[in-house]
Fold these 4 entries.
Entry 1:
Amino acid sequence: MTTNPSNIAMQNTSGAYLQVSGLIKHFGRDRAVDNVSFAIPRGHFLTLLGPSGCGKTTTLMSIAGLHRIDAGAISLGGMVYTAPAQGVFMPPEKRDIGMVFQSYAIWPHMTVAQNVAYPLEIRKIPRSEIDDRVAGVLRLVGLADMAGKLATNLSGGQQQRAALARAIVSHPRLLLFDEPLSNLDLKLREQMRVELKRIQHEVGITSVYVTHDQSEALVMSDDIVVMSKGRIEQKGGPREIYTQPANSYVSNFIGVVNLLKGRVVEANGAGSGRIEISQDGMCVQLPCQVSRGIAAGAEAMLSVRPENVQATRENGGAGCLEGEVMQSIFLGNCIDCRVRWGSFEWKILAHPRTRLRKGERVFLRLDPAHTLAVVP
Amino acid sequence: MSTHSVSEPVVTAPATGRWRGLLTQESIATIMVSVIVAAAVLLPLFALIVSSFQVIDPSGFGATWGLDNYRTLYTDRIIPKAFVNTLVISSGTTVLATTLGVSLAWINARTNCPGRDRLEAWNLTPFFLSPFVGAIAWHDLASPKIGLLNAWARDHLGVQSYLFNVDNIWGVIWVTAIFFTPLVYLFVIGSLRRMDPSLEDSARTTGAGLLRTTLTVTLPLVAPGILSGAIIVFVTSAGEFGVPFKLSAPYGWETLTTQIFSKAVGDDANYNLGATMSMALGAITVMLIWVQQRYIAPRSFTTVTGKGFRPNVLNLGRWRWLAFGYNIAFIMVAVVLPILCLFVVSLHPVWQGRIIWGDMSFHNYARTLVFWRPDHIAAATNGIYNSFILAFLGASLAMVLSLVVSHMIHRTKGFGARLLDVLCVVPIGFPGIVLAMGVVITYIRTPIYATLWILLLGYITRFFPYGQRNIASVMMAISEELDQSSRMAGASWFTTMRRITIPLLKPGIFAGWILLFVIFLRELSISIMLYTSGTETLSVGVYYLTNFESEPLTCALSMAQTATLIVCFLVFRRVAGREALTA
C-alpha cells in the first residue's frame, strides 16, 4: 500500500490505516460523540463497545459518511474522508466502504444475487465478472444455493450472510458492522460470531464493529475501544481490557467484577502497592496492582474478578477476609458463589470440586497479581 | 489479499472550499423542492393577507390601506348571515357525519353484522365521488317540485305538496354529511380494527361489563380518531362550495364559500373583500387543522399499537339484521338512490319530476360527451378533455413533489425538514376556494393566468399533501437502512432513489397517484375560480350545464364523471388493498 501523505495537517501514526481524530458530533444540544480518537492498522478488527447511547453507532455512521461530524477528522489509508475544519466531506458512496446494518437492510424487491450484485453494477463491472464474483462470495458466506431467492424468503441468519456478502463483494477498503448479531437468537449469534471472524480473516478487510455485547467484543476483536457517554474509556486488546481495566467503569462493563471503594496507601513505581478498604468498621490493607496515574493516598476502586478470589476454610492470615456463604450454585464447570463480608457481597467463581455450604464461614484470599486498584 | 487493487487510489482531499461538500444531488433537489413548495404555498397566502388590508375607494380605481374590509365583514347585509349559515352547516354536518361514520365503522369492525366484507366498499364509495354531483342528484330526488321522491309521494301517498325539501341549509347538511361520512369512518375503523383485543379482555377480566368496557376502554382509545375525523369534516364542509351553491344559495342561504365566489367572479366583484372573507374562513380552518395534526393525530397512533390483531367481535344476535338494515339504508341514500336518479334524469329530454318511459334516449350523453357532433356543448367536452390532462399531469407532478418532500421530512431531518412539515399542513387547512382566491390575486397579472397551468398550480398546491401522506405512511414503515446501504454500496443519492427508494415505495406512490387523480377529476372549488372559456374542467362543465342548460344534460355529464370515478375507486382498491386508504 502506498500511503499518500494528505495535505491536511494530520499526523499519520505509523501503521495506522483508519484514523479517527478528535471526533465531535452533536444532536441538537446533546454531544453524542465527544473528542473520540483512535487508529487501526491495516487488516485489524476493531470493536467499539459500550451501552446504547454511548456514541458508538454515531461514530460508525460518521466513518461511513451517513452522519456529518461537527469537528475532528477521519481518514483512511491517507485519504481524508471528513475534516469539517477544512471543509472536506466525501459523500458515503465515494468512500468505498462496505457496511452491514443492524436490520441487515436486504432489499426486499430483489433476489439475493441481485442484492449482492448491486455494488458491482454501480461500479460498472462487466456482467460476466459480476456473475463470477457474486457466485464466489455467496459460496464464501454459505448461500450458494439461495442466489435466486427473494430476500424476504430468507431467515434472519441467512439475511445476515447475504448482507455480509453484499458488503464485501466489491472488496471495499473498510468494512463496518452496526450490531449485526443483535437480532439473532443466542445460539445463532454464537455461531455467526465465529463465522464472521473467519470470513473477515479470509478476506482480510480492515473492520470496525459496533456492539454492546462484551463477550462478542472479546471473541472477535484485535482491538477494543470501550465507550461511555460519547467518550472513550479505554483502548486496548481484549486481554488488556479484561485484565487491566483502566477504571471501574470498564472493569464493570467487561465481565463480572467485585468493586469496592478504597484508598491507595502505598504505590511503588513498578505498579504494585497496597490498598486500604474500610467497610462497616472493618479496615483491611490488601496488596494489589495499582493502575498508572494513581498516587499513594488517592481514592481508588478495588477491582477483582470472581475467578481471582479463592474461598477456603483455613484462615490464611493477614489479607484474608472472613465471610459467610450466602449462596452456592453448581454450574458444572464451576461454582457460582456469593459470600457476605460486612454489607458487601463477594461474587466468587470457585473450582467445581470445592464444597461450600450455605451459612458456612469461609476465608477469602485475593490473588495480589489480579487485584487491581483502578480509577473510580 | 490478492484480489484487492494493488495500489491504493491516490486521492488527496478534494479542493478546499466549504461549500463544495454541500452541493450534492440531495441538497440541490432538496433546496429546489423547498423553494417551489414554499413559493407555491406562501405566495397566495401572502397575497391574501396584503390585499385584505387594501380598501378600494368608491370610484373603484385607487386603493388605500385600511381595515375597512374587515369592518365590512360584520356590517354587510349578507356576509354575517353567510358566516352563521357556514357555522350551522359545518356543525350540523359534523354531528351527522360523525354519528353515521362511527356507528358504521363499529358495525363493520366489531360486530357480526352479515355481509361486512361486501359493505365496506360501498360505505367508502362516496369518498371517491363528487359532493357537487351528489347535491345535483339529491336536488332531483327531493326538491319540492321536480324531486322524484316528492312526485312519487304525490302520486302514490296522496301527499298534497311535497314530502322532502333539500333546497335549504338542512339539505346542504344532509348531502354534505353523507358524503363526508367515509372520512370519519376511515379515521375510526383503523383504530377499531388494529386495537389489541387484550386491552378490552383485561378490562373484562377485572369484572367490567360489556357496556362499561366499551365506555371506559374502547371509546377512549378510539376518541382521538373520532375527534380527528370530526375536525376534518368540520373544516372540509366549511370549505365546501358545490353543495351550498346548488342547494342553498339559489334559495337565499348564502355561505362564506358562495360569497367568496360571487366576490371573485360575480357582478359585484371585489377581490379585496373576497380576500378578507378568505382570511376569515382560512384562519378558522387552518387553526383547526393545526390542532388536529399536531395534538390529536399523533395520539391516535400511540394508543393503538401493534399490528395484525384480530379484534373482539360482538355477537349482536337477532339485532344484527337491524345493523345490516341500517348500513344498507346508508348505502341506499349515499350511493344507490343518487346514482339511479342521475341516470333516470339523464335519459329524459326535459325533467319535471315524472318518469316518462317513451321519451328516454341517450341523446344527452351524445351532446355532452361526443365532441365531434355539431350540437355538442363545448363547456362539457372541453371540461372532459382538460380534466383528464390536469388529473394526469397534476397527479404525476404532485407525486414527484411528494416523494422528495417525504424523503426530506422523514429521512433528512434537517432544519428544512421541519419547515416543510409545516408547509405541508397549511394547504390541508385551506379550503380550495380560499387558496384559489389567493392564486387569482397572485397570478392575475402573469401570463399563466387564464391558462391550464394556473389550474395545475392551484391543484398541486392544495392537494399534494394528500399524496405526500400516502408516501410518508409507507416510508415510515421502511427502514432507513435500506437507503443507507445503497449509499454504502457506492450508489449516488439519485441512483438510490431510482433503484431502491422508489421501487420500495411503489404501492404508496401508486395509491397516492390514484387518489390525486380522483380528487383532480372532480375538483370544483379551485377550478370555478380559475377557469376561463376554454379551460373548463369536468366539474365546471357540470356547473355550466346546471346554470345555463337543462337538468337532464347536467345529469348526463355528472353520470359520466361518476362512472369514471367509480372505475378509479375499483382500481384503487385492487392495487392499494383494503387498508391503504388513509384520510
Note: Residues 1-13 of chain A have pLDDT under 50 and may be disordered.
Entry 2:
Amino acid sequence: MLIDAYMGLPESVPPLFWTVDAGYETERQALGRDRIKIINDYLQGYDSIDEVEADQLASLSMKIT
Amino acid sequence: MSKLHSEFYKKFKKATLALDAAKFMQVDSYIHNTLRNAMQQELPFIGEYKLIIKTRILREINALITIVGIAIVSISCFPNGAEYIDELDIVYTNYDDSYNFKNKSTFAVPDKITKIDRENFPDGPGFEPESKEDSLDTIPTIIQ
C-alpha cells in the first residue's frame, strides 16, 4: 500500500506488474517469518548459546540476508 | 533479501519499465533496511547481557563498599563518641590518695587481665577490693 502510493503508477500499468508484485510479497513475507524465527531462537537460547547454536543461527541469518 | 531483489528486479523490469522496477526496489530496500536496523538495535550482542550483569554487580559492590566506608568513618569521627579506652572498657582503679608517687622513679603495669566474674569477684557487682592483693591475678610487674 505504502509502496503503491509512492510509486504513483498509472492505471494503465500492465496487470503483469501486480502479479509480479504479489509473488514478490509472498516470498518477502516468508523471509520475514524466517527472520523472526531466527531472532526468537536467538533470544530464547541467549543465556546458553554454544558453538553449535551460534553456527546454526549465523548460517541461517546469512541465508536470508 | 538481496537474492529476492535480484530475482524480482528482472521480473518487474519485464512487467514494466526499468525505471519503475528500480524505483520499487529502492523504496522497498529503504523500508526493510530501516525496519531491520530498528530490530537490530533492540537485540543484545552475544555475551553483552552477561557483561551488563557483571558490570552492574561490580557497581553495586562498589556502592556498598563506599556506603560502609562512609558509615565507618562517620561513626569513628562522631564528636560524642568514645575518645579514650576507658569509655569502651570497664576499668577498675584503686587509687591511694596517701601514696607519694614522687618517691618513685618506676611504674608498674599488670601482666594479666582479671576477668570480672563470680570466681574472681564472689561478692558480685559493687565489690571493691581495697588493695591490689585483693584482686586476683593482677600482680604487677615492675618495670625498671
Note: The first strand of chain B starts at residue 107 and ends at 110.
Entry 3:
Amino acid sequence: MENILSLLIWLPILGAIVVVFIPRDKEDIIRYTSAAFTGLQFIVAIQLWRKFEPENGGMQFMERLDWIPSLNISYILGVDGLSLPMVMLTAMLFFIGVFVSWNINKAVKGYFALYLLLDAGVVGVFLSLDFFLFYIFWEVMLLPMYFLIGMWGGPQREYAAIKFFLYTLFGSVLMLVGILGLYFTCGKTFDILLIMERAPEALDGALWWGMSASKVIWVLLFIGFAIKVPVFPFHTWLPLAHVEAPTAISVILAGILLKLGVYGIIRINYGIMPDTVWWFAGGLAFLGLVNVIWGAMCALAQTDLKKLVAYSSINHMGYTLLGMAAVVAAGAANGGDLKAAQAGLSGAVFQMFNHGTISAMLFILVGVVYERAHHRDIDGFGGLASQMPVYTGITALAFFAGLGLPGFSGFVSEAMCFIGAFPVFKTIVVLSTIGILLNAAYFLWAFQRVFFGKLNEKYKDMPEINSLELFTVIPLAIITLFFGIYPRPYLDLIRSTMDQIIEKVAFVANYAAM
Amino acid sequence: MNNLQSLEFFVPELILVITIIAALITDLFLKKSKTDVVGWVLGIGLIVVALSVINLRHVPPTTLFLDMIVIDPFSSFIKLVVILSTILIIIASWNNDELKDYRKGEYFTIMGIMVIGLFLMASSVDIIMLYIAIEVVSIMSFILAAYLKLDTRSNEAGLKYVIYGSFSSGVMLYGLSIVYGLTGSTNYFEIQEAISTLDSTANPALIMALLMIFAGFGYKISAVPFHFWTPDVYEGSPTTITAYLSVAPKAAGFAMIIRFFHQIFSDGNALGLNLIGATDMPWPEIIGVLAVVTMTLGNLVAIQQESVKRMLAYSSIAHAGYMMLALPVISIDAVEAVMIYLFVYLFMNLGAFFIVITIKNKTGGETFEDYRGLGWKMPFVGSVMTLFMLSLTGLPPTAGFVGKLYIFKTLIGAGESFYWLVIAGGVNSVISLYYYFHVVKVMFLEGERSDEIIQPPAPLFGLLIVTAVPSLLLGLYWNPLVTWVKDSLIFYTQTL
C-alpha cells in the first residue's frame, strides 16, 4: 500500500465515474456501487489508522509528485494526528450516508455521482499538503454541494443552494489572495510544509498597506475558513442550507464540512503563522463565546427540529474555537501552562470529531421522523414516546450526548476546551458556561415537546424506526458512548501532533518575550 | 526590410488572400443550398495558413514592409488563436439554423477578410497600419452582424455597430493625429523615442491623445465606457458571429493594446525586459480604473438579463475587464497572463455560445425560459454548459480558474499598489457566479425528469467536446500551454 492516501482520494472519484456509466434505471445497482466504493474507502481508512504511528507527530505516508513545475505546484499528500481522525470520520460518515440516502429516488444516478465527488473533495482537503491542491479540493466540494442541496433539497432549496455557494466562494476568493500572498513572500512555492518553515522569517516585518503582512494574510485565510465553520457573523448560510438539504447531506455538512474550517485554521493559520496566533487568540476566544451564546439562543427560539439541530452546531463549534484559543496558555507570557494548552487544543480537535458523530446522529434521527410525518415542527408532535419507544430511546441518547452529559464524548471534549481556556480567558469561559445551560435547555425542552405529553392523534400509526435506520445510528451511538467513557485512545492518537503545534506557538511566544 | 524581401515572411497572409479569392470564385458556381462548400475552402485554406504561421514561428523577429508590421512569436501566437477560433466558428456556422435561409458564400469570404485584418492588428507597429487593420476588421464585422437581412434585430445590430464603430474610430484617428503632431512620426519606435524627449508641457495633449486612442481600443475589446454597442450587437447578430466577435477581435485587440502601450508609453525596450517603469503618463492607472469599472458593470448588468445570449454578451464585457486587470502591470508576466487568459477564454466562451446555438436550433429561443429543465432532457448539453459556466466563473479545476490565477498572481507579485485590483477581481468573480449559475439553476434545479433523452446532432456534439475537453483539461494540467506561451513571449523591439 505505497499510495494509500491517493487511494483514499481516488477511490470515490473512480466510484463516481463508474456510477456515471451505469444506466439510470438500474437504481439499486447504483446504490450498491456507491456503498461498495465508500465501504472500500472506509476499509482503506481503517488500514491507514492501523499502520499510523501515533508517537510520530510529523507527516506520514507522504506522497510527492511534480505537477506544474513552472509555478512550483506539486501533488503532495500526507497525514498526521490532526488529519487522521478527520479522514476516518469522513470515510465513516460517507459510508453511513449512503444508507441514509437509500430512499432517495429522484435522479439516483446524479445524486450518487455527486455524492462520491463530494467525498473525494473532502478527503482531498484533509490530505493535501500543497496549497494549490488544497484549494482545488476545497473548491471541488462546492459544485456537488450546490447540486445536492439544490436538486434534492426542501422547498427553499434553490435559494439555500446559491446562498451557500456565494458565501463559500466569497471566502475562498479571500483565501486565494492569502495563498498567493504566501506564495510570493515565501519564495514562490505552494508546498505547505516548506511555507511553514519559511513563513515566520519571510513574514517578519513584511508590510501590506502599512499593516503587518502576516496579520493581513491571517485575516484573509481566517475569513475563508470562518465561513465554513461557521463563525458568527458568517453563519447565516448554515441554518438555511441545513434545513433545505436532504438528510444525508445535512449529516455530511454538519459532520464533516464544518470541520474543514476548523481544520484549516489549525493546519494553515496556526501552522504557518504561529506568532499571529498570539495577536488573534483573544478574538478567537471571544468569537467562540459569541458562537456558543448566539447559537444556543437561536436554537432555543426554533420551532423546526432540524433548524434547532443546525443552530446547535453553531453552538458546538464555539467550544472548538475556545479550545483553540487556549494554545496561548503555553507561552511564557501566560505562565507557560503547557497542560492547559494541551487540554485546550486536544479538546478542540476532539470536539471536532465528537460533534461529527453527535450531529450526524441528530440529523439522521430528525430525518427519520421527517420521513414519516413530512414536517419537523417541534410543537406538531407530542407523546411520540409511547408510539415509538426505540426511537425515543435513541433520540434521548443523542440529545443527551448533544447537551454534553457526562458519560458521552461531547462532555469530555467540551470540558477539555473549558479547562484549557480557563487560565487565560477566565471571563470568557465563565460567560460561556451560560451556553451550556442554554444548550441543555433547548435540547430538553425540544425533547419534552416532541416525545412527552399526550400522543398526537395524527401519529398513532407512526411506524417505529426501521432496521436500516438503526444500522446508520447505532455505530455512531457506540462511538459516542465509548469515547465518553474512555477517551484515551483518541487522545493518544493526536497527542504528538498537538504537542508539535503547541511547541511551535509557544516557542514563538518565548522568543518574543525575550 | 524592404517590400520585396518582406514577401517571404508574409506567406501566411498571401495564402489567406489566395484562399479568399478561391472562396469568392467557388461561390459563383454554387447553388444556394451548397454554399457550405465555401466554408470548406476557407477552412482548408486556414489550416495551410496555420502551418505556414507555425513554420515562420521561429524566424528572428523583424519588421516588414519598411517598418509597417512585425513578425515575432507573439504575433504568431495571436494569429494561431485567431485561426483556431475561426475554424471552430466555420464548423458551427454549418450547423447554425439561423443561417439556413441565406447564402453562406459571402459570409465565409467576409470572415476570411476579417482574419487578414486581425492578423494585421496583431502585428502592426505603425499607427497608419494599425488604423487600416482596425477598419478592415470593423467593416467586415458590420456586414457579418447584419447578415440576417430578414431579421430586423440583426439589421439593427449592424446599424448600431456602424454608427458606434465609425464614431470611435474617428475619435481614435483624431488622437493618433495628435500623437503624430507631437512626434512627427507614425512609427511606434520613433514615436517612443520622440516622446521620451518631449518636455512636460506636452503632457496635457498627450493625455488627451491617449484617452482618444483608448476610445478606439476600448471599443474593439468592448471596455467600459466604450461598450454600449456590445449587448445589442451581440444579441442581434447570428450567434456564430456573436461568438466570433467575442473572441477573435478581442484577442487581436489585446495584442494591439499590449504592443501600443508597452512599446510607446514605457521607457526602454518595453517588451523583453522584466519590469520597466512607465513614462510619466498615468496610463496604467487609467487602464486599472477602466478594468475595474468594466468588469463590475459587465457583471452587474449581466445579472438582470433574461436572454442567455445577452447575458453572455455582458459576461464577455466582464471578461475583457479581467484581462485588462493585468495590463497596468508593465511586465512580461502580465502579458503572459493575458495570453493564457485569451487562450482559455476562447474555449469556454465559444463553448457557451455553441450551447446557445444548440438550444436555439431546438427550441427557437434564447431566453432562460427556453433552458428550463434542459438538464433533464439533454443531460449532456446540461453538464457541458455547467462546465462552461464553472469555467467562466473561474472555479477550479477548470481552465477559467487558471486564467484568473495567472492574472491574480501577476497583480500580487507586482506589489501592494495592485492589491486593490485583486480584491476587485475576486469580488467580481463571486458576483459573476450568481448569473452564471442562474443558467445551471433553470437547467437542473427546475423541471422534471423526462423519459426521453435528446442528444445534440453529431457536429455540434463534436464542437462541444472540442471546447469542453480543453476547458476542463487545461484546468488540471496546463504546463504545455504555459510552455507555448513562454516561447511566444518574444517581441520585436528596437531602439533607435
Note: The two ends of chain B are 15 Å apart (CA to CA).
Entry 4:
Amino acid sequence: MAREPLTDGAAPALVVSHLTKRFGDRTAFEDVSFEVARGEVFGFLGPNGAGKTTTVRTLGTLIAPTSGSAVVAGIPLSAATGAEIRQLISVMPENPGLYLRLTVQENLELFAGLYGLASAGPRIAHALEVVNLERRSRDLCRSLSKGLRQRVGLARALLSDPTIMFLDEPTSGLDPVAAREVHELIDGLRQRGVTVFLTTHRLEEAERLCDRVAILNTRLRIIGRPNELRARLFRGALEVETAAPLPTPETVFNDEAGVEEWHAQGTASYVLSVTDPRGAAPKVTRALVAAGADVVSIAEARHSLEDVYLQLVDEDPEAGG
Amino acid sequence: MIGLDMGRLTAVARKEVREYRRTPFIIGAMTVLPFFFMVEPVLTIFAIGTTVKSASVAKGVGVTFLLLLIVPAIIPATVAAYSVVGERDQGTLEPLLTTPVRRGEILIGKALACVVPSVGIAYFLFALVVVLAHFFAQNPIVVTTLTDGSHILAQALFAPLLAIWSIGVGTAVSARASDVRIAQQLGTMASLPPLAVTALVAFQIVPIGVWTAVGFGLGLLVIDIAMWRVVAAMFDRERLITGSRAARRVGAAAAPAGTVRRIQGYGGADHGRGDT
C-alpha cells in the first residue's frame, strides 16, 4: 500500500484512509489510502471495474463506504456531513448529465440555485466565459455536440467555485480537438488553484495534466509523480543507433562504459541498461567512436506512464476486470 | 424534511416546470386527458331530463363527481412516474444528487411542479362543468346539486389530496423503475385505489355532507402522509445510484480482518439521521 504524505504544510484537500466499499460479496475497492494536496491535479487510473467511479461516488457522498474514513475538503465523510461536503465540491460524471430540454443557461441556473449561489447571473456568465460558451447560452443542450456538452458540464462544475473538482473521464468519447480543449480547461483550473481529482483511462492525459497519479485495481497499486513511478519500476536505459551493425557489440557495451546489460533492437539499434543514463551516455559514445562506429543517435530511453500502468496491471491477476 | 431551503426547492420546481413545457407527452397528458375525462360527465348531466327525480339527479352528479376526480388522480401519477426514472434515463440524476440539495427539497420541488397544475386543471374542469350545466343542463336540479356546498368542499379537498397521493406513488414507482413506460403504467394503476374513498361518496354509499367530506379528506390526508414517509425513505442517494443500499446491509462482519472501523453515522442505527 503506497501512501505518500505531502509536505507543503497546507492541510490536504482530501485524506483517504483505508477506505473500502463492498456491494454484497463484490468488492468495489479495498483498503485505499492516499492524500491529495490543495491545488493539486491528482490522476486516478485503473482498468475498467477497478473501482474508480465508485471511489469518486463515495468521496462525493453518493455512496456510503463499508469501512475506513475520509476527510473531504476538510470535513470528515459521514452521512450527517453529506450536504456540507457537497457544498464544497463538484462532481462531473463521465456523462455530463445535462437536462437536454433546457438551454445551457437554464441548466446553469438550476445548479446555481441548488448551490444557493447569490448573484448567480455573473457567476454563470463567468463560468460560460471560462469554457468559451458565452454565445451558446440560449441553445438547448440537446442541440450541442458531445464536446460542447462536456464543456457545459465543466461550466456547471465551476459554478460553485469548488474546493475540489472530481472529473470522471472528462474526455471520454471526445475527438482529439475537443479533448485538447478539455485539457486546456483543466490546465486553467490548476492555474486557479482548484484541486482536481481526475479519473481517466487516457494515460497520456494523466501524464500531461497530473502532478501525481495513483493506479487502482480494487486496491491501490502505486501512487506518486509520473517520473517517480517510472524510476521506481524501470531501470535507466540508453537507446543507441549506429549507421551499421556493430561487429562485436559485447566489446563496446561493457562495464567500463557503465553498461550493465544490453540487447539488440533491430539491425543497428541497441538498448543498454545503465544505472545513470546521463553519466553513461558520454562513455558509451566514446566507446562507440573508439570502435569505429558511426553513431546516428544516442538517447535516454523514456518510459511512458503507459509503460508503468501496463507493468503494474499486467502483473495483477485481477487486471482487466 | 427539516431545514428546507426555499431557494433550492424553487430551483427544482422551476426546472421541472421548464421540462414539462418542452415535453410533448406531458403537455398532452395535461391538456388532452382532462378533456377526455370531462366528456362522459358532461353527457351524463346533460342527459338528465326535467322529469327525473332529485335522487336520480344526485346519482348522476355523483358519477360526474367521481369522473372529474380521476383527473387529479391519474395525471400527476403519469407525470410523477417520469420524475426519477426520467432523470436516470437522461443521466442527470447523479449530477443532481452530488449537489447540496436535500432529498426533501427534491421531492417537494418535484411534487409542487406537478400538484399545482394538476389541481388547477381539476378545479378548472369542475368550474367548466358547472358553467356548462348552468347553460345546457335540462334539469335545474343538476346545477343546484353540483354547486351544493358539500360537493364543492369535497371537490376542493379531494382533488389536491388525491393528487398528492398520486404524485407520491408515481415518484415511488419512478425511484425503483428502470423504464419510463413501465413506471408510468404502474404509477397510473397505483394512483387509483384512493378513488375508492371518493367512490363511496360519489355513489352515495356514504351520503355527502360537510362533515363527511372533511372526514374523508382527513382519511386521505393520513394515507398521503404515510405514503410520503415511505417515498422519503425510498429516496436514498445510494439506492438511486446503485440500486442497492449495500452500505447499510453490509455490516462490520462482512469486512475482512484488517480493515478499519465502520464510518460513524453510516451504520444502521444512524440511518435517517443524516440527510442523504
Note: Chain B has a mean pLDDT of 80.
